[in-house]
Amino acid sequence: MATIREYLVEMFNKVLAKTITREEGTMLLNDLVKRDKVTTLKEIASLIRTPPPGVFPKTILHTVVLANNKVFNDLLIASLDHRDESVTILAAEGLAKLRTDDAKEVLKGHIDSDIYHVRKASAAALVMGFGKEGVEILKKHVLTHPEPFYRLTSVMAIIGAGAMGKQALLEILATGDVPAIESVAEGLADAPVDFDEEEIPTLIEAMVAAADNEKFEAVERLLGVLGSLGSKAARYEQYLSVFLESPSPAVREAATTAVRRIRYS
Fold first, then answer.
1. Which candidate, 198, 145, 149, places its Cα nearest to that of 172?
2. Do 73 and 102 lie in a common domain?
3. pLDDT (tens digit per residue) in 57-76
4. 151 lies in the same domain as 218
5. Which residues lie closer than 8 Å to 150 by C-beta, 6 or more apart?
6. Which structural domain, as residue segments, surrounds residue 254?
7. Using an 8 Å Cβ cutoff, are 85 and 122 in contact?
8. 3-class state of residue 83 by DSSP
9. Does pLDDT of 36 surpass 90?
10. Can you give the three-state secondary structure of 244-259, one letter per residue?
11. For residue 176, is it left (φ>0), alpha (ψ between -120 and 50) or beta?
12. Which DSSP string corresponds to 21-73?
């Protein structure tokens, strides 16, 4: 009689060969867990660490995630720190789909990971699985973490959260917290957001706070954001024109460009 490991290896090979679907593979996984939970989990973990020839860790974990079974919770957690980014993403998405308090706390802990792809996947999964609550966790992270690289990872996940993400960005800017403003400005430079006219004063106030603290790179980036809004920012051109006299050449140039874009949009 075949061992559980042999059943698993045969099944994953069939999934790769497309002689069975991943969904059929999940049925076998759930059946094996019912028969022998401890051995099945141990063997899957072993196969993810050292997959057999021709089988990839992400294939194994993808099948596990499709099972959507809380019994695989610890397996997903262990896979979050995998060196392969695709495995980490699958593990994070699997935890997001479970939507348990345990999964939320694990993902929250991993946005402080030293490994970029781990915190990136964990931040995205918090939004995916926990919506507004996940965005609030990321917002707090941006406002409290001392390191800019970690804050930026959370900012980018917030930007990807649509309307509730935009609201969170405005709330961060409205605090006047300069390090957080710097991170939001950096994120917006890479992934622009279409702000509404009534939201522009918050952007300007944040820009002034950055200028008062001589954070000229953040000012330059926020001028770029405001300029991209074109005619929506026309009422506020005078506030941008102030920066034409900035001691920073880069800020003066950004202000010139922003004013021009607003006038001729």
1. 145
2. no
3. 999 999 999 988 899 999 99
4. no
5. 111, 112, 119, 141
6. 194-265
7. no
8. coil
9. yes
10. HHCCCHHHHHHHHHHH
11. left
12. -HHHHHHHHHHHHHH-HHHHHHHHHHHHHSPPTT--HHHHHHHHHHH--GGGH
Which pLDDT belongs to residue 265?
82
Q: What residue type is 225 in one-letter code? A: V
Stretch (H or E) spanning 94: helix 85-98
> Which DSSP state fits 2?
-
Q: Which amino acid is at 27?
A: M
pLDDT reported for residue 1: 66
pLDDT at 227 over 70: yes
- In this structure, what DSSP letter does residue 176 have? T
> Would residue 200 count as lying in a domain?
yes
Whole-angstrom distance, CA of residue 161 vs CA of residue 128: 8
Q: Look up the pTM and report it.
A: 0.93
Tell me, what's the pLDDT at 54? 86
Closest alpha carbon to 69 in 120, 119, 107, 103: 103
